[in-house]
Design a protein that fits this description.
single chain; mainly alpha; 2 helices; 83% helix
Length: 52
């Protein structure tokens, strides 16, 4: 259960940071937050599946 909560929190924070960076540095590309969030969650899934 703690792994799911950790993944949720980290993905949310990474998505917000990606959105902020995309909006400021890339002239309004706030969709970068969604891309970063999906990439982080994919990395968590691969990491936790290979760890077993």
């Amino acid at each position: 259960m703690w792994k799911a909560l950790l993944a949720l929190a980290v993905t949310f924070i990474a998505g917000l940071l990606g959105m902020a960076i995309g909006y400021d540095a890339m002239n309004g590309f706030s969709e970068m937050g969604s891309v970063v969030a999906v990439a982080v969650m994919g990395a968590f899934i691969i990491y936790f599946n290979e760890k077993k």
